[in-house]
Fold:
Amino acid sequence: MSYHIMNKILSTIRNYGSIALSLFCLAVFTGCMSGDYDIPSDEELLNSVGNPSITERHLVTIAELKTMYADQMAASGAVKQITEDLQLKATVTGNDISGNIYQEIALQDSTGAIIVGVSASALYGQVAIGSEVLIDLQDLYIGNYRMQPQIGALYNGTIGRMSRYTWQRHFRLTGKSNVIEPEVFADGGSATTWNLDKDAGKLGVIKNVKFSGVGASTTYANPEAGAGSVSLYFQGYDRTVMMYNSNYADFAADKVPTGKVNVTGIVKRYNNSWEFIIRTIDDVQEVE
Structure:
């Protein structure tokens, strides 16, 4: 074989090699640009805290989200899937740390509050009170339960709780921690100025009140009764303002104070009533 023929063959091999290398680099670069390498596997999601691949693309506030889905806020039990590419950033104000809040997370931003339903336990280990979370809303559902706005999944034609796996895929912690101060719901028997549509689900405090019909042996709930709850009412208010206590709460057997108290909690809407749900027993402070 002549020198010229050999040189031509080697040159052809080098050219093809360069093309192959270029195509390989292009594929790697394209994969990196698409962000696919950042998307965790199903197993990684179930063994992690949230989905680190979620980014802030189209942020909405809680108030904006409610306005976008006004029909689902207005009709009892209404629900709709979120199809837009939207993200919500808010602070955790309530979780299941004491067992009084069940499979729910309360969120709040500067514009309002909303409940997130998650069919899982020990959520407080993932999302501590004060944690800021970023939620990818696309494909989740929004609606209301007894008129309380909620994000979750479709359940029997209404809003329900999403699975743990779905939750893991749709949220991440931002790494920030915020302090949300409770807003005064009422003080010493005064009428509340809270609005059922705008304020439902906020962290609130009712001050200088006494519980109605309690004695020295009254407990917050009945830990021996199994599933269920006990409602306590406040002197000076009708039965549209109550305090909800789960039989599974770790303070269920504690004695209810008979004197004046300040009660802080997630103030949920229950149709046209207000329902205080304390996070821990420390949310009830006796007034001297």
Q: What stands out?
A: The chain has two domains: 59-177, 183-286. The chain is about 20% helix and 35% strand. The mean pLDDT is 90.
